[in-house]
Design brief:
The longest helix has 18 residues. It is globular, with a radius of gyration of 28 Å. It is α+β, with helices and mostly antiparallel strands. A hairpin with a 5-residue loop joins strand 24 and strand 25. Strands 1, 27, 28, 29, 30, 33, 34, 35 and 38 form a nine-stranded mixed β-sheet that branches. Strands 3, 4, 5, 6 and 7 form a five-stranded antiparallel β-sheet that branches. Helix 8 packs across helix 10 and helix 16 packs antiparallel against helix 18. It contains 18 helices and 38 strands.
């Protein structure tokens, strides 16, 4: 099966936080992930007979050069819609799967369709109960500039029934109607969902019979049982499924997403994954996602979903597997089509009365934030060790931008650690790992990590930073980020540290960073010296004086302001093409580096790592109370291996040295993103982010090898610095006065 490339991934990365935050977790704070029905985290399960199993279906060799665009059922038979580029055109084929055999069932009108071989082509085929087919196709036609949708009804030949409003640009944003999904109903109508409306069309001529402007956000999956239309929606607070009779807005019934906990027999849905939905003719709903596959019969108690199989037993638990379609058949079988890094994969799920659960150990992993790497590691580890399940419990979704309630986090975690529900594995990001280690709550991991460092498997400059004076280490990061200094009219050696930057800017007569408020300047730099101004709970005045001197020089060059005007931001990377000459930006992997590298090329500037520092993430420790210490250690080794670290998660560099090299050499030429930025004359110009050269990738790898200091955040130190530095940075107070204020502000805190 042809591997499908995503040329829009960079744009997706820019928008992913909005999509996942609204349609997935919706800011839900207690996002305990899937356990197993009837299980308790950290417990041991007895084998149970009969369960749903996952099987792979081999796709026909005739589709080797095609891409499957859609999967659906017709008369209880699986059908595939495939696209194939041929003679500068995109051709369509329909295949049916029955009795273990795929057969080409393309109708003549569909086979005669030829779509333009554009970079972006979307297609969807639906069929009504009388056998009539309808094809939606969206693309940029030859001679046109904008993406536009088209609709045909199948007959002896294709009949164009495109609604007139699809050909009229939107008055506000200029583009055409963007179609998300459609469904054919038994009453001779089509339900069509776009980003701006939900329309009921005549299936005969495409005329609009009813139109509604949505007040909520829809995920785009339009599902029907013939009589009712089902839509996944969110109002920004809660996600739900809408059941609309004949697709209309009157008398809408709402169905909750599968939600609850494993002890109740249902599982919380949310986090960074999406819900995939299908409906059988009798109204039975099938839902699937990272937490498993679920069924809701039409006569079930309201919202009482039945879990058919836990997510960890399926490919839905794999973050680098993207589900494209879900469809079910009347006998209980379920099909799921996945896009993987290697191509497309078709799975079938069915109940096997003889299948026996092999699980004997269930470990609990606690983390404040979700992590794609952790999910991937847990899923792969279970595939390698079917007897072990790593249950991940998180407090916040991956993309959560409000301020976390760490008081509640600490209270909950301490209660677990002091009780019988202690996690086996802890992720210590944003937590006081030194405190937990000093209290004897974490195991020494040196015997796990040091051999991997000595063999060269790990970046010892990153992982070695966690070794204490006693030779022990209680935490190891699985990923890291770092800060790039980008500049024009400034050499890398003049911006690679606070000291070098201050020395260079002391001679400059141009504001390289642009004006700053006190809190903006502190937030930009304090994490790089936070750990150097406090030693053994004492304020190191000598170091403090040195770093405050650097800040003062940078403040003088920047120009201090009391308050940032409303709707104005301080200069950053995107301003380098206009007034800024220097910017710091954090990079979270080689794909993320495409934005700053493109900017450096655009301004003909340069870049370097800042302060030889790194931002650790997924800092894993093992709880000393764990009854599964050996398994937890083996899981840690596995999470550090290439099998897990080779994948790109788009939120960090791998600490595995071979994985780092492999990711740096990956071809990203199919990834582009376009945005508008301000030029130095004040006009807005189009800016393209593209892949960078192998030489640049090698330079980034070399920089990763120089990083040896994890940055440190400290909310109290930040607060005191902001409170006490205003007068000094603006020149109305002396350095000694500023240090005295800081010492007084931290006295009680350091004494604790």
């Amino acid at each position: 099966m042809k591997r499908t490339k995503c040329s829009k991934l960079l744009a997706i990365l820019l928008a992913v936080s909005l999509f996942t935050g609204v349609l997935s977790a919706c800011g839900k704070e207690d996002s305990k992930e899937a356990g197993l029905p009837g299980s308790e985290s950290g417990g041991t399960l007895e084998g149970a007979g009969g369960r749903y199993v996952e099987k792979s279906v081999e796709l026909p060799p005739e589709l080797a050069d095609s891409s499957i665009a859609q999967m659906y059922t017709v008369e209880n038979t699986l059908h595939l819609l495939a696209t194939k580029k041929q003679d500068e055109k995109v051709c369509l084929e329909e295949w049916a799967y029955q009795d273990g055999t795929f057969t080409n069932v393309t109708q003549d009108w569909l086979g005669a369709m030829e779509l333009p071989n554009a970079d972006w082509v979307e297609v969807k085929l639906v069929q009504s109960s009388d056998g009539t087919q309808y094809l939606y196709a969206g693309y940029v036609a030859e001679g046109e500039d904008s993406f536009r949708g088209h609709l045909w009804r199948g007959a002896d030949e294709a009949v164009d029934i495109t609604p007139e409003k699809w050909s009229v640009p939107n008055e506000e944003w200029g583009g055409y109607e963007m179609i998300q999904g459609l469904a054919a109903l038994d009453n001779g109508t089509l339900a069509v969902l776009s980003y701006t409306s939900l329309d009921i069309l005549s299936a005969q001529d495409g005329s609009i019979l009813e139109s509604e402007n949505p007040s909520v956000i829809y995920e785009g999956n339009v599902v029907t049982d013939g009589e009712n239309v089902y839509l996944c929606s969110s109002d920004g607070v809660e996600s739900r499924i809408e059941k609309r009779k004949e697709g209309k807005g009157e008398g809408i019934l709402t169905i909750p997403f599968p939600a609850g906990n494993s002890e109740e027999g249902v599982v919380i849905f949310g986090g960074s994954g999406s819900l995939f939905l299908d409906a059988l003719k009798d109204g039975t709903l099938i839902a699937a996602g990272e937490n498993g596959i679920f069924r809701l019969p039409p006569d079930a108690e309201e919202g009482r979903w039945e879990q058919l199989v836990a997510g960890i037993e399926t490919d839905f638990s794999m973050p680098d597997y993207w589900c494209l379609n879900l469809t079910a058949v009347e006998d209980g079988g379920i099909y799921a089509l996945f896009q993987t890094t290697e191509g497309q994969k078709l799975n079938f799920y069915e109940y096997d009365p003889n299948a026996v659960s092999e699980i004997t150990e269930v470990l609990k992993l606690y983390t404040v934030y979700e992590s794609s790497l952790l999910k991937q590691a847990a899923a792969l580890y279970h595939k390698a060790h079917p007897e072990v399940v790593i249950n991940i419990e998180s407090e916040y979704p991956m993309y959560y931008y409000d301020t976390p309630d760490y008081d509640t986090v600490y209270k909950k975690l301490n209660t677990m650690l002091m009780g019988d529900d202690a996690p086996d594995i802890l992720v210590m990001d944003h937590l006081n790992m030194e405190s937990y280690a000093q209290r004897g709550l974490l195991e020494d991991l040196d015997d796990v990590v040091r051999p991997l460092e000595e063999s060269g498997e790990l970046l010892s400059n990153i992982t070695g930073a966690y070794v204490g004076e006693d030779g022990k280490r209680y935490v190891v990061p699985l990923q890291f980020c770092f800060t790039l200094a980008l500049g024009r009219d400034i050499a890398p050696e003049n911006m690679d540290s606070l000291e070098a930057m201050a020395d260079y800017l002391s001679q400059a007569d141009y504001s390289y960073l642009g004006s700053r408020t006190v809190d903006e300047l502190v937030d930009l730099f304090y994490t790089y010296f936070c750990d150097r101004i406090v030693r053994d709970k004492q304020l190191d005045k000598e170091n403090l004086s040195k770093y405050l001197g650097y800040l003062k020089v940078i403040a003088d060059n920047s120009g201090m302001i009391d308050k940032r005007p409303e709707n104005e931001l301080s200069y950053g990377m995107w301003d380098l093409a206009a007034k800024a000459k220097l910017a710091l930006t954090d990079v979270r992997g080689f794909v993320d580096c495409m934005f700053p590298m493109s900017m450096v090329d655009y301004i003909k500037g340069d870049f370097t790592a800042f302060e030889s520092s790194f931002i650790p993430s997924v800092q894993m420790g093992i709880c000393s109370k764990s009854g599964y210490s050996d398994t937890a250690r083996d899981f840690l080794r596995f999470a550090l291996s290439q099998q897990v670290q080779d994948s790109e998660y788009y939120n960090g560099f791998p600490v595995n040295s071979l994985s780092l090299k492999k990711q740096s050499e990956k071809d990203h030429s199919d990834m582009t993103a376009t945005t508008m930025i301000m030029a130095d004359d004040g006009s807005y110009v189009e800016f393209d982010s593209k892949s960078y050269s192998k030489e640049t990738a090698k330079r980034l790898v070399d920089m990763c090898g120089t990083l040896d200091r994890p940055i440190r955040e400290d909310a109290k130190i930040r607060e005191v610095l902001i409170e006490c530095l205003g007068g000094y940075l603006k020149g109305t107070e002396s350095l000694d006065e500023a240090i005295q204020k800081i010492e007084a502000g931290l006295k009680m805190y350091l004494a604790e």
